[in-house]
Amino acid sequence: MTLFIALGLAMDSFSVAIANGLATKTFITTKALKISAFFGFFQAIMPLIGWYAGVHIVELISGFDHWVAFFLLTFIGLRMIYESIRKESDKFVSSLSIKMLLMLSVATSIDALAVGLSLSLLKVSVIIPAIVTGVVTFSLSFFGVYLGSRFGRILKNRVEFLGGLILVAIGVKILLEHIGTILYQ
């Protein structure tokens, strides 16, 4: 399940990396490493922040925490699917300053913050998922810049759509597991 969460979260960064590779049209290793490092770091740190926040509110919502996790993951997943279908192309960035990289890194990792919150509500450790998410995001972002420089127009929206489907499926799984637990008590 950790790998699927990581893949789902990494799709937004992967999509932006593809878009950047498409915008620059030339693969530059140092640029790909810079993008990947920013995206990977923020995708790893945001679940930790979300989990920490969730631990402190878990007492308040422990009776319906599974619903919160379901709605958060489903909302994030559906938003990703919606954004993948939109015709606008607002993720293309031709020049990446540190400020722009920070903004893109935070924007693409907000979902990871919500997943960290969900993990805290489920009383699941966040360390391994955060590390795996960071590594997967780093790897996919690097590969995304490369793919974008080669044939990004074909891939861009499909990966974000897939990431959204993965997060919705995980949300449904959490809800069904909880309902199943209640039914079998």
How are the secondary structure elements laid out?
Blueprint: H1 2-24, H2 29-61, H3 65-85, H4 98-121, H5 127-183
Helix pairs in contact: 1-2, 1-4, 1-5, 2-4, 2-5, 3-4, 3-5
Describe this structure as you would to a colleague.
Mean pLDDT is 81; it is low at 89-93. α2 packs across α5 (127-183). This protein has helices spanning 2-24, 29-61, 65-85, 98-121, 127-183. Helices cover 85% and strands 0% of the residues. The protein has five helices and no strands. It has 185 residues and is mainly α. It has one domain (2-183). The protein starts with a helix and ends with a helix.
Number of helices: 5
- Beta-strand portion reads under 5%
Structural class of the helix and strand makeup?
Answer: mainly alpha
| Total beta-strand segments | 0
The low-confidence parts are 89-93
Overall radius of gyration: 17 Å
